Amino acid sequence: MSDAMPWLAGLLAGPAEWRDGLAVTIAPLLPASWPLSPNASINLLLALLKARGLQRAETPAFQRASANPPAPAQGSTPLATHAPSATASAPDLRAALKPCRSALIGVGLFSGLINLLMLTGAIFMMEIYDRVLPSRSIPTLVGLAIIAAVLYSAQGVLEFIRGRILSRVGTALDEALSSRIFQMSLRLPLMQGPKAEGHQPLRDLDSIRSFLASSGPGALLDLPWLPLYLVVIFAFHPILGVTALVGALLLVSLTLLTEWRTRTPTKEATALGNKRAALADAGRRNAEVVAAMGMGPRLAAEWQGANGAYLARQQTASDVAGGFGSISRTLRFMLQSAMLGIGAWLVIQGQATAGIIIAGSILFGRAMAPVDGCIANAKNFVNARQSWGRLSRLLQAVPADVAPMALPPPVERLTVANVTLIPPGGQTALVHDVSFTMAAGSAVGVIGPSGSGKSCLTRALVGAWQPVRGKVQLDGASLEQWSPEALGRHIGYLPQDVDLFAGTIAHNIARFEADAAPEAIIAAAKAAGVHDLIVSFPKGYDTEIGEHGAALSAGQRQRIALARALYRDPFLVVLDEPNSNLDTDGEQALQGAIESVKARGGIVVVVAHRPDVLAAVDQIIRMKDGRARPPVARADTLTPREGKPAELQADGAPRLRPAGAGLSPESMAKLQKALANATASQTIITVAADPAENRPDAAQKPKLRIAAVESVPRSVLTGPES
Known about the structure:
Elements: H1 4-12, H2 16-26, H3 38-49, H4 51-57, H5 59-63, H6 93-97, H7 101-117, H8 119-135, H9 138-192, H10 200-212, H11 216-222, H12 226-236, H13 238-285, H14 287-292, H15 296-348, H16 354-376, H17 378-397, E1 413-421, E2 431-439, E3 442-447, H18 454-461, E4 469-474, E5 477-478, H19 484-488, E6 491-494, H20 505-509, H21 518-527, H22 531-535, H23 554-565, E7 572-576, H24 584-599, E8 603-607, E9 619-624, E10 627-628, E11 632-633, H25 634-638, H26 665-676, E12 681-689, E13 704-713, H27 714-718
Parallel strand pairs: 3-8, 3-9, 6-7, 7-8
Antiparallel strand pairs: 1-2, 1-4, 4-5, 9-10, 9-11, 12-13
Helix pairs in contact: 1-3, 7-9, 8-9, 8-16, 9-10, 10-17, 11-16, 12-13, 12-16, 13-15, 13-16, 13-17, 15-16, 21-23
């Protein structure tokens, strides 16, 4: 049929005498009630046959939406080539749909033509009963059948094109916003904290695209044409028109009632579905803990409760939509039968013909079909509308990033000025008025008890958290003056909870840069002291590490994450508990990495509980209750000064003040032996010579006394300063 369509269109668009002759030929075949003249009918048929040409004519509008549109794939529809910029300039979904405006106008025109062609069946049946059967004319029957077949074919083509356009509008919307919405889903946890549903915006976009590709939009587009059918039925007879109008009001009321009743359960089901998914994801991430401590049945019970609540709300929404859908179909069948009965009564009274009975019933059924479609798609429509509302609010609340003017790479200093931090989604400040300055080529250690705000401070230093007061500056420019991508090139970050992405080791070290140079990847690995470890794997840098780096040990993940932080020699390197999972070799490599950053003029901030890693830093900042003391030199913190005992800080515990003066070599040997046998963190009894018992005679062994009892890491007391 597709091969015949261009030929038929060419015939209809031929010389005027051809069309006039064709008009004379089909004039006897048109029913008396047909609203169009023969020439107008030919023009309508010609427009329908050229409908696919309308779609192609609209394509340039999509191509103009992008300065560099991609080339269409072989055999693809031109509408699919629309690929707007990932960061839309306007804050709402309507702006993203602007390039599709011409296609949507075409969809509206197609809907109008489709609904006009829907009259074909009713008029065909009326002509059969009122013209063919009384006259017993076979040529008339054949002519009517040919016309009906052509019109039905045109209707099918238009519906096919309309469905494809709507599907591609959904795809175009997804392509225009998916990248930006994905980036927003990454930013939501940094804005809303634990309450953020990071995946919900992506699910909302999927919901809108799926709805546009379903039968729901077609039903909604056909619904406004319901008055057209009512007008035609009124033209048959006013009583039939009143009956159809009453039925239409009842069915439309059912549609609105269905939408209202499904709104709340659909919204609740979405929230419960997010809770269920979060619980399942948490259980999957902690599968080892669950298996080791036998938590599986209890977590399964928790999930079952969340799943039951979700299914209950889903069932409620489905029951409402299904129940009203059944009522609508039943009522429609009854009304169609009523139309037949009233039509028969009118025929008996001599006020209508037999063809009107059938035509009126068919037209009423066609008029109510969109109502049934709207009720059947009510749940999907409500879900898509709620998704549209959530995405619109989110796009307005999180405007697109506007790339600021490029700044030169930082090379001089890091300034933290009166920074106060409140965690995302929180109400209480965890860091208060922290200030310090670091010059290039220096390193600072941040120590303090758990919960003192050390990790919160690191998140502000790398720009993950925004201070509510104060600023973090690089070379005098606040972090907000860089775009996230540009700032990321100057920052290396090793978080406390190390997590890698599914992919190869090289991809993770290169931060998933598409054009990463192998030399830069290897240089970062060597700077982190992990190159030899990587090449020991069978596939080396091409080793797939799995989701969350599951194929690696905790120490290996931490060392590869350190290489990622050092990739392309960032100016500021922030390390949060970088040695928590490292062995001796790993700690030595970490010390070398810190020294290498200092040597090339970078800045290192190290958060540590174990002071071993602080041997390479120049200054120490001690935090407690969210407040930081001014930086002091490491030598003044970890070594004796002015003949007084050193003040050693470990894990934020009370500082140990060893009184080692006067110990005999034998006593010192005993003490060192005891410390060598101690665990990493346990109670240590520190002994010292009692000055009151000391005698001038050097041969006399001094008596010992207990100087302190502390729970400290062994490394504090066995280091070179001790």
